[in-house]
Design brief:
Rossmann fold; alpha/beta; 38% helix; 3-stranded parallel β-sheet; 12 strands
Length: 388
């Protein structure tokens, strides 16, 4: 059943597996969808989609596969011209129960057949045409346990088949720019939970085990608390060509502070030279060599910047953009020192990857650091690399 829907999901980039597909069919066999496309949508999504960043891709695949049921706007407009408003059909509970609920494929074929044959002009009552006040699977102000609501404007029985075209989860698309919630979800993968500190947390399991071994005499066992042991450095490019991305980088920064206890953050402009800064205006800072000495190789280093600068800023001595700032060591060498010092370092670029080739310095920086887009996918891939 719905074999083509499986391939539609695959085509839209939803990584559904055969195991999950079998689980969906088991759910349908137990009537968990109850012949409702709305419930089928929710049941299938909960089984087939493992990551909320895939929700929008799921919506698109769902809309594509069930488009004959949802109906394009031009078809709706065409049908509406032939429908007229009537008094809503009122049936008793027994009469409603007597109408057979149809499977989704049958409903889809019914609608397509009635539309192709033009059965939607002035039909009132009846059980076949696209009409009003009837018992057919499509129309308005009537009743059928499964059907397509057209021209009614609002739900009466919560049974109509219409759902996916609205793309409820567009904000979860992993290709869109990050919002704070998505950033937190991605950064949560950085957390390394390890026992740390004094043994001040009661272990119920170990207490029971030791008490049993000691013949019933209660012996409390304490262990170290499980804490987030991730150690992260966040280096952010500030000013100039990064100005359009201030809000995005701020979201990343605020999310990182909320998710990572041991986080240290610093700023630079275009490239890191012999100084690194503790404020965005770069008025307060300390030498980069001191920064490397202070933070050990076990820190995971995330650098955020567009890597867009003049090649001389990256390659030349005294090439820094600020006139009175002299750098005896080229910026590219400082970047290499950062890479060599920390075991795990990635560069996140807020500019879309398709524009990177337009800037020579992006390729130069990519030779030093693995670079990822600052999107959900890019941040996720970057964190996976940090955690390897």
């Amino acid at each position: 059943m719905f074999t083509d829907f499986f391939f539609e999901l695959k085509a839209h980039g939803v990584p559904v597996t055969l195991h999950e597909w079998i689980a969906l069919h088991e759910a349908l066999a137990k009537n968990l969808a109850a012949a409702s496309l709305d419930r089928f949508y929710s049941v299938a999504r909960s089984i087939l989609v493992k990551d909320e960043s895939q929700f929008d891709k799921y919506d698109l695949a769902f809309a594509s596969y069930f488009k004959g049921i949802q109906t394009p706007e031009q078809i709706i407009d065409e049908i509406l011209k032939g429908l007229k408003k009537v008094e809503a059909l009122a049936l008793t509970a027994e009469e409603m129960a007597a109408i057979e609920a149809l499977d989704l494929e049958t409903v889809r074929r019914n609608f397509e057949r009635q539309w192709r044959e033009g059965h939607y002009n002035e039909h009132t009552g009846g059980n076949r045409a696209v009409g009003t006040g009837g018992r057919s699977t499509q129309g308005a102000f009537g009743f059928h346990p499964t059907g397509v609501r057209i021209g009614q404007g609002q739900s009466r029985h919560k049974r109509a088949i219409q759902i996916a075209e609205e793309r409820r989860f567009k904000n979860y698309d992993s290709d869109v720019i990050l919002d704070t919630r998505n950033i937190r979800v991605a950064l949560s993968r950085l957390r390394t939970l390890l026992p740390e500190g004094p043994e001040d947390e009661l272990s119920l399991e170990k207490t029971i085990d030791k008490t049993a071994r000691d013949g019933g005499e209660i012996d409390l066992v304490f262990v170290k608390s499980i804490t987030n042991a991730a150690k992260v450095l966040l280096l952010m490019d500030a000013g100039g060509s990064m100005d359009p991305y201030v809000e995005l980088v701020s979201r990343l920064f605020s999310s990182a502070k909320a998710q990572i206890r041991n986080l240290h953050y610093f700023y630079f402009h275009n490239c890191v030279y012999q100084d690194i800064y503790t404020d965005m205006r770069r008025r307060s800072g300390f030498p980069t060599w001191e920064f490397l000495k202070k933070f050990g190789p076990d820190y995971k280093c995330i650098i955020v910047g567009d890597a867009d600068m003049a090649p001389t800023e990256l390659l030349n001595r005294n090439g820094a953009i600020h006139y009175f700032y002299y750098n005896d060591v080229p910026g590219i060498e400082w970047l290499a020192r950062i890479r060599d010092h920390f075991k795990k370092t990635v560069w996140l670029n807020p500019r879309p990857a398709y524009v990177w080739p337009r800037t020579d310095t992006v390729d130069m920086v990519k030779e030093v650091f693995p670079m990822y887009e600052l999107t959900v996918d890019g941040l996720t891939e970057g964190i996976r690399r940090l955690m390897r």
